[in-house]
Amino acid sequence: MTGNTTQHRIVIVGGGAGGLELAVRLGNILGKKQHASITLIDAARTHLWKPLLHQVAAGTMDNHADELEYFALAQVNHFNFRLGRMEALDRTKKEIFIAPTLDENGEELLPRQAIQYDTLVMAIGSQTNDFGTPGARENSIMLDSTEAAVRFNEKLINSCIRAQANQKGFGEGRFTVTIIGGGATGVELSAELHMTTKILSSYGFANIHPEKDLKIVIVDAAPRLLPVLPEKVSAAVALELRKIDVEIHTNEKVVEVSKQGVQMASGKFIPSGLVVWAAGIKAPDFLANIGGLETNRLNQLVVHKTLQTTRDTSIFAMGDCAACPQDEGKPNVPPRAQAAHQQAMMMAKTLQKRLAGKPLPEFSYHDHGSLVSLGEYSTVGALMGGLRSGELFIEGKFAKWMYWSLYKKHQVAINGWFRTWLVTWVEAIHRFAHPRIKLH
Predict the structure, then answer these.
(1) Can you tell me whether residue 98 is helix, strand or coil?
(2) Which terminus of the chain, N or C, has less C-beta within 10 A?
(3) 325: closest CA among 365, 280, 283, 282?
(4) Could you say which DSSP state residue 52 is in?
(5) What is the reported pTM?
(6) How far apart are the C-alpha atoms of 419 and 9, rounded to whole Å?
(7) How far apart (Å, rounded) are the C-alpha atoms in residues 369 and 352?
(8) CA 185 to CA 225: how far, in whole Å?
C-alpha cells in the first residue's frame, strides 16, 4: 500500500496476537479503501502465536513451519510493516523512535528511525518478570519469545545427545529440567518435555528414557498449580503430571538461580542442568513512564475503558501491556490471549468511530474459560457458563478439540477461513512427512 500524507496515520506497535489481528482488520477495512494509512511495527520479522512457545521449546512444533511473515501479511492485507524495536516517544511531535536494527554480525541494518502518527496503538505484549531474583536472568531461560524457545530446545537436544554418548548405568545421573512457575506455560511445557523424551527414545536415542534419564521439576510460590484457574482444573492437572513423574514443589519461593541449580527460601536446593523461568509477567521496561504516560508497577500503560491512555487520547494500549479496568471491585483485565483478541476486535470498531468523530465504545471483558494442554496425555479446562457454578469442567478429547480450535480462531482472524483451511491441510501433511519432534 502506498503511503499518503493526507491520510490519517494509524501506527500499531507490536505484532503479537492482538496487534497483528488489529493490523489485518484495519488494513482490510480502512487501508484497502485508502481511508487511513496503517503501519505495524515489530522487532521480529515473523509472528508465532505465543501460547505455542512451550511446544517450540520442547521441539514438538517446528517454529519455521508455523511462523507467519509480517511483510507477506502486510502486502496481502493492505498495511505497511516496519521492522524495528520502539525505544522512545515524543507526544508533542506525535513521533515514535525505533532503535537501530542490527544484523546477525552486529552491523547496522537499519538506522534509528522516527515514525509519525495521528493515532498510536501500543500492543507490545509482555515479558517474563524475574522479580529481581539473583541469578535468574543469567542462569535461566525466559520463555517469552520464539528465540528463547529455540535456544531452550537446542540445549535440550544437546543434553540428550550427551546422554546418548554417555555409557552410564540405566537411570544413573538424571538430567534435571527445573521450571520455575506453575502457570499454564510451566505445566504445559513439563508435559511436552516428557513426551519429547519419550519420542527421542524411539528415534535411536537408546540411553534416553523419560522416567529414568530426565527429571522434570516445577516450582511455584503459590499453594497450588494454576492458581488463577479453578481449583478443580488445578487438581486435575497436578494428578496428570504426577502420573508421568513430574516433581511438583508448591509454596516454595525461589531466592536464587545459579549455574548449579535452584535455591529456595525453605532451604531446599534442586541441582539443575537447565532452568526455565515462567513465573510472572510485566510489560517491557522501556514503557515505564514513557513520554510522561501513566504506568503501573508492572510497566503497563494505564488506560480508560475506551483503551485510551489516561494522559493522551490519541494513544491507545491493548493486550498485556495495558492496565485496563473492569467493573468496580474486579481486578484489571487479565493478560490473556482471549483478552487481546477481544480488545483487537473492539479497537477495529473504535478507530473507525474515531475517524468518523463518533463516541468511542468501552471495553467489557468476557471470560470464556481456560484450557490447559498436557500434550498427548490430556487436556483439561473450565468453560464459563456452567448451569450452577458458572463454569463447566471439561477434559479429554472435547477439551483437546477446544484447545486446538483456539489456535484456529487466531489463524482465521489473520488469514481468513479459506487460507486457514489450506494451512490446516498443510499442517497435517507436515506432521505425516516429518519427525514428530524437531531434532536440529
Answers:
(1) strand
(2) C
(3) 365
(4) G
(5) 0.83
(6) 29
(7) 30
(8) 11
